[in-house]
Queue: 4 jobs
Job 1
Amino acid sequence: MGSIEGRSVRKLVVACDAGMGSSVMLAAQLRRELRALPVTVEHHAVAAIPADADLVLCQSGLAERARAGAPGSVVVGFRLFLGDPAVARVVAAVKEGGMVIGTTGG
C-alpha cells in the first residue's frame, strides 16, 4: 500500500492497460492542474511504469498489476477517469500538502 507526502511527489504516472485513451486525457488534465509545481506527469502502460515514479494513478482493477510492476511507488486506484474523488485527493495533497495513501485491492 504505502504512502507519500503530496509535496514530495516529483513524478506522477497515470497508468493504463494499453497506454492509450482516457488515461491520456487524465494525464493531460493533471499536467495542467499541476503545471506550477515541480511535478512531472507521465502516461505509461501498466506494464511499463518507470522505476522512478513516486506515485501511480490507475483504474482500480489495474492496481495489483501496477504495484507488482512498480514496487517502490505508491499506487492509488480510481474508478472514474474524470471527476473521481481519489484523483481529486491526490491533486489536493500534491498542491497543498498532506499524505497520499495507496489503495488496496481492486
Note: Residues 22-34 form the longest helix (13 residues).
Job 2
Amino acid sequence: MTAPSTDVGTPARRRFTLPSAYTILFALIVLMAVATWLVPAGAYDLDADGNPVPGTYHPVPASPQRIIVDSLTAPINGLYGIEDTAGKISYYNSGVLFGAIDVALFIIVIGGFLGVTMRTGAIQAGIGQLVRRLHGRERWMIPILMAVFALGGTTFGMAEESLAFYSLVIAVLVAAGYDTLTGAAVLLLGCGIGVLGSTINPFATGIASGFAGIPISQGFLLRLIILIVCLAVGTVFVLRYADKVKRDPSTSAVYDMKADNDARFRLSDEASTAELTGRHKLILTVFALAFAVMMYGVIPWADLGIPLPTLWWWFPEMTASFLLFAVLIGLLGRMREGELTEAFVDGGRDLLGVALIIGIARGITVIMNNGQITDTVLHWAEVALGDVGEAAFSIVMYTLFLPLSFLIPSSSGLATVAMPIMAPLASFLGVPQDLVVTAYQSASGLMNLFIPTSAVVMGGLAIARVPYGRYLRWVWPLLAILAGVTVVLLGLAALLI
C-alpha cells in the first residue's frame, strides 16, 4: 500500500495589510492611556476665554488613566462626555459638552440627505445628460467632469458617492477612444482634488474648523486658490495623458487589458437613455440650495462688515437644515413615506462608520485631557517650534499631517485627533488657526489620492480594472506637483497674513 502523500503544497504567503482606521484609533487610545503613566502632567494658565496662555506651562500632580477601563470608555466620552469646571471629562459630569455627538449626528443626517437625493436619480440623470450632450466632443468631458466632481468634493466631500459613476463615465470615455485609467482619473482626481481644496466641505473643513474653534469661512480664500490651482494642474495632467492614449493606444498604462476592458465597458441602454426631467432639475436646484443655505448660515457676516443678518449657525442648525432639505427632496421626488425614510436611513447607514470614527478619535483627546498630558505635549511642541517663522510653521504642519493621514485615512477622524492640539499651538506662535486647518485638509486630501487604505482609491481602481501599482507609477509626478504647489501657497499665505 502506498503511503499517503505528506505534500500539502506551499502555503500562500500572507500579505501585510494596514489595520482599519477603527483599530488604529483604538490602539492610539490605549497608547495614550499608557503615556499618561510616563509623560509628566502639566497645564497652562487660561485666559478669560478659556484659551491657554503661552509661557505659563507648569507641572501638576499626575493623573494616570486606567489602561483597560478608561480606554474602553474613552470613545463613549468622545461622543457625549461632559467637561466639568476642573477640566475632567465624563458622561456623568455636569458642565459643558466635550464629546463630538453634534458632529457625529450631523454626519449621519447629511448621509441621509445624500441617500435621499441619490434615490431620486437626479444626480445620475444629470451626469448622463452631460455625457450625451458632449457626444463627439468627449475631450471636453474631461475638464468639465473633473470640475463637476471637484465641486462635489469641495462642498460636501464627495468620495464614496463617486463610485456610482465609474461605470458610466469610463464606458463613455472608452467608447471615445480613451482607456479605463482616464475614466478612473477623471473621477478619482476630480473628487480628490476637490477634497484637497475643500472650501466648505463639512467632513473636512467643517469638523476641523469646529475643533479649532473658528468659523468654517475663515481661510476660505486660500482654500479656494489651492482648489483652483490644483484642479488646473490635475486637469492638464489627465488631458495630456488622454490625448496621448487617443493618438496611440499602445501608450496606455493598461494597454495589455484593452480588449477585455473595451468589451466590459459598454454603455447600458438604461445609462445611455436616462432622461433629465424637469423634476430632476428642480431636485438638483434644491440640492445645491441646501449647501448655499449652510454656507450662508455659518458665515459671520457681522464680523466681515457685510450688512447681512448673521445667523451664527453651527452643527445643530446645519443638521436641522439638511434634515429639512432631505424631506423636501424626497417630496419633490414623489417618494412615499416608507421609501423616503428607507432612503434616508440607508444613506445615514453608509456614513455611520464615519460617525463612529469621530467618537473613537475624540476619545484620544479625552484620555490625554483627563491624564493632563495634552498641555505637556503642547508645551513640547511650543518649545520645538517656538523659533520657526509663520511660513516654516505652516509647512511643518503640512509635512506632519502627511504621515498622520496615512495612519488615519479618515479626514474627520484625523481632524478630531489633531485639531485640539495643533490649533492652540498655532495661536501660540501667532499663526492664524485657519492655516492649520488648510494644512491638515490639503495633506489629508493629497494622501487620499493614492493610499491603499482608502476605499475610494481601491474601489475605484477595481471598478476601472486598473492595477494599483500601475496607477501609482502613473500618478506620482502629479502628487509631487500638487504637494509643491500646496507648500508654496501655504508659505506665501503665512507671510502675507
Note: The CA atoms of residues 382 and 425 lie 7 Å apart.
Job 3
Amino acid sequence: MSGRSDIAECIRHSLERYFQDLDGEAASGIYDMVLRQMERPMLEVVMREAEGNQTRAADMLGMNRNTLRRKLTDHGMI
C-alpha cells in the first residue's frame, strides 16, 4: 500500500525539518508531540469519512467506541 509509505515519508520529512529548526537546541517529548500532532487530523478525516458516526469511525480505526470518544473529547472535537 503506497499510502502508508507516503505517510511515513511525510512524518520522516517533518521530523528532519523539526530537528533542523531546533538548530542544536535539545529536543524532548518528541514521541508524545508526534502522536498528538498526527492524531487530530486522523480523527477529523476518519470522522468525516464515517459521516460523524462514532461506531463506524471506531471500527475504521480499530478501536472501541469509548476510546474514540475519549480521544475526540481530548482534542475538543465533541
Note: The mean pLDDT is 93.
Job 4
Amino acid sequence: MPPPRSTEPIVLSVLSATALAALAILAWRAVGWLGIGVLGLLVLFIAVRVELEGNRPMGPQMTPGLYADQYRSEVEAEPAARAGRRAERLSVIGAARLARLFGAVLAVTGFGLFLLL
C-alpha cells in the first residue's frame, strides 16, 4: 500500500501563485506592464540563485574553504543522511523550478505587452 500523498505542496503552490498574482497587480497599477516584467525578472533571479545554491549556506566568493567543507561533510556522511539531504535538495529544486516558471511567464508577459502596447 503506497503512503498517503500530502496536499501541502499543492496548497503552498496555490498560495505562492496567489501572492505573486497580487504582487503583479500592484506592480501593474504602480508602473504598468514594465513593473510586471521587472517583477518577473526578480522572481527569476531569486529562483535561479536558490537552485544554484542547492539550499546550502553560501558565503562570499573568497571562501573556498567553506565550499570544500560542505562537500567533504556531504561525502563523509552516512548513506541515510546523504539520502535525506538529496531528497531535501530535490524538493527545494522543484520549488525553485516552479518559481522559475512563474517568473518567466511574468517577464515575458510584462515585457511583451510593454513593447506591444
Note: Residues 79-116 form the longest helix (38 residues).
